[in-house]
Amino acid sequence: MSLFLMNRYLGDDDDDEDAKESRSKALLEKLQKQAKEREQQALSNRTVVKSDTNKTEEDEKEVKRKRKEPEDTEELSKVKKSKKKSSPLKTETEDQTAAKEISSEVESSTEAKQQSSKDKNESEIHADISAEPKSSSQPGFPILGGFEKKTVQKVHRVLPQWLAQPDVIQKDIKSNLVPVSLVPGICPKLMKRLEKNGIHNLFPVQAEVIPAVLEGVCHGLLMGRGGYRPRDICVSAPTGSGKTLAFAIPIVQALSERVLCQVRALIVLPTKELAQQVYKVFCTYAEGTNLKVVMIAGQKSFAAEQASLSENKGALSCSLADIVVATPGRLVDHINKNDGFSLQHLRFLVIDEADRMIDSMHQSWLKLVTQAVYKKGGDLSIFGRREPGPITAASLSPSQMPLQKLLFSATLTQNPEKLQQLGLHQPRLFSSIHSDASTQEASQPFEKFNFPEGLTEYYIPCTLSKKPLILLHLLLRLKFSTVLCFTNSREAAHRLFMLVKLFGGVQVAEFSSRLSPSERKKTLRDFEQEKIQLVISTDAAARGIDIQGVKCVVNYDAPQFIRTYIHRVGRTARAGKSGISFTFLLGVQEKNFLQMVTDAGSPSVQKQIIQPESLKSMEACYEQTLVELGNAIKDEKAKKRRTL
Ligand SMILES: Nc1ncnc2c1ncn2[C@@H]1O[C@H](COP(=O)(O)OP(=O)(O)OP(=O)(O)O)[C@@H](O)[C@H]1O
């Protein structure tokens, strides 16, 4: 049995409008009833007084006093007690008798009321005790213990407006090409260079983003449009949609008129291969200008990179680079150890594969870059830079060189907490995810991503032992060429490479951290030139790598994360071309995989069944190859032991 009743405030229940309305109605009725009772009581008192004609003026005063007596019986009894205490020896007079009569009348009416309300309360409490769960739905405050009945409010994720309402980029490249001459802001020199490189039309992401970046430099490098600091830009567009040119073209154009050579653009990428690829693009478009492009990605020694970044002229250190393409590791080394490397004039910071770079933020490379940009002292006496704080009249004058951040990825996170780490300034998002963000957020707990338009996705149900045979079947029987095949580890990639090589009939190579950078570079070149039919790779080649002519991607091992899947299959169907992907799935993987890709917004993954009969003719040879593979692996291990 409950010993006491405790009322608790459970927060405004805005959702339950009906319950709220009925509660207020009940309260109103209760108040009206009380008012009526009080009115009647007052009337009855008055009649009692009037009927007593023998009463003296003294009596009338007493009546008035009685009328003012509190209704609350507790208070009444207190008053009575105090009266008794004050005149304990007083004998009863006629007046006192009359007053007593009135008092008893008042008392009886209040007692009756008290009794009725007491009964009511008791019955309410009994009802509460006997049917506790009901209590929360009763008007007034809910009863302790009735929480389970309260409906839990659904909490929807609310995105900041810039994330919820992006500038839309068309996904279909082929039908949304824009002639270079129609894109505003591109200078004639760069138009010619684009034409020279066979680019007559720009892809949708380029047609949207290039003018937006150029708008920020329309009044020079010091201020953006209208004299304001330019907004940071985030771009989320499918793999192979041409994001590299979307930042390379406006940066080259913005810096091409510079007078002094200083590091004004820094492009940070997660791997050496990607850095090499982007470096090449910048070199191509900086040709014919005074701009110097330097790569610091660990492909050369630290000293060689140092020499390419700056030189000493007397006591002065002069920059030899305008645009630096870097991987985070080497970048941090140069910030910490290379005195000649200054980022105090940095105007553009490009973070490619931004979601991956945010995940590697524990290396705190961004913090170091920011510190290097706003480093105290130095030679910036005229354009002294302070880290921007809140915008005030004072902070806007004198104007200082802004640092604009440009983020690119095919799988850019929509997690505001993650993006917040980047300290973006009034960011603007360009995205090819079309669905209405407000409804999307209300109903979808998963992030949606973009898939290339020309991609056809298949999955092949299989068993572990049949996987190699199915891969061989795709290459030898179905005659797929330029196939990029992904495994989940470099050991698995190596074993599969050896197996296919021993089986024969396929030009195969591996691509993983087992190989040196120069070996990997050669592999990619040979693959592009179709000297190699199949490359078996780890996820080292999954992101950003642009290999011309990959027609088919095979996920030999199913990817564990949706981002990995999107980047792997994105090595085909690039630049508006078509491509095909196969994912080998074991029985236990099927359900989770299909759920994962559907949640991410994949248009459709079709099932492809390889009949066991079609593999039969290869089985004998395959068994023989397995024996050979066992021996080859033993030899390799022995060789390794000897070299140790
Ligand atoms: N306007 C264009 N016309 C023709 N080809 C283009 C154009 N823009 C880019 N390309 C080509 O499209 C391919 C893909 O471009 P890019 O590597 O920039 O894509 P991406 O969006 O960065 O892809 P990922 O997300 O995989 O890194 C490249 O081979 C590039 O040369």
TrEMBL record:
Task: Please list the residue ranges annotated as the Helicase ATP-binding domain.
Answer: 224-430
E.C. numbers: 3.6.4.13
Q: Where is the composition biased (Basic and acidic residues)?
A: 20-40, 52-63, 116-131
- What InterPro entries does its record include? DEAD/DEAH_box_helicase_dom (IPR011545), Helicase_ATP-bd (IPR014001), Helicase_C-like (IPR001650), P-loop_NTPase (IPR027417), RNA-helicase_DEAD-box_CS (IPR000629)
Print the keywords alphabetically: ATP-binding, Helicase, Hydrolase, Nucleotide-binding, RNA-binding
The protein's annotated catalytic reaction(s) are: ATP + H2O = ADP + phosphate + H(+)
Keyword Hydrolase annotated:
yes
Which enzyme class? hydrolase
Taxonomically, the superkingdom here is Eukaryota
GO molecular function, a single term: hydrolase activity
Helicase C-terminal domain residues are 470-616
**Biased composition, Polar residues: where in the chain?**
105-115
Disordered: where is this region? 1-145
The record's SUPFAM superfamilies line, in alphabetical order, gives:
P-loop containing nucleoside triphosphate hydrolases (SSF52540)
Q: Does the keyword Zinc-finger apply?
A: no
Q: What residues form the membrane-spanning segments? A: none
The text of the family note is: Belongs to the DEAD box helicase family. DDX51/DBP6 subfamily.
Query: What's said on domains?
Result: The Q motif is unique to and characteristic of the DEAD box family of RNA helicases and controls ATP binding and hydrolysis.
**PANTHER family associated with the record:** RNA HELICASE
Q: What does this protein do?
A: RNA helicase.
Q: Indicate what this protein is called per its UniProt record.
A: ATP-dependent RNA helicase
Organism in which the protein naturally occurs: Clupea harengus (Atlantic herring)
Q: Give me the gene this protein comes from.
A: ddx51
